[in-house]
Prior knowledge:
Blueprint: E1 17-20, E2 23-27, H1 34-42, E3 46-50, E4 55-56, E5 59-60, E6 64-73, E7 85-90, H2 96-102
Amino acid sequence: TVHKASDIKDDLRYADGFLDPQTFLWETKANLKQKELDSLCAASHIELFVRKVEAEDGLALPFTYIGSGKMHLIPNSRQDNGSWQFRVEMKQRAPQDLYFDFQLPKG
């Protein structure tokens, strides 16, 4: 979920979103175990699904398929909550509307 609700704990506010139309920044869950990190690093590709917000008017919103890509661990990106950041190089450029909806906030 790209835009987190205001009542979400700070350590669960992951940095997820497009850096540019072909690169997505993804942050793993908190307290990721080394075995899980190794498995993510070994993945040949991923299928990326995102949603802008978790719920609207009390209804859970569906995920949107963004496309496939290759994940690259960002060196020294371990966060205080034990999560890690990956750059996802997408096979296709994001359409303008998806890029706009799911880009990382500026600043």
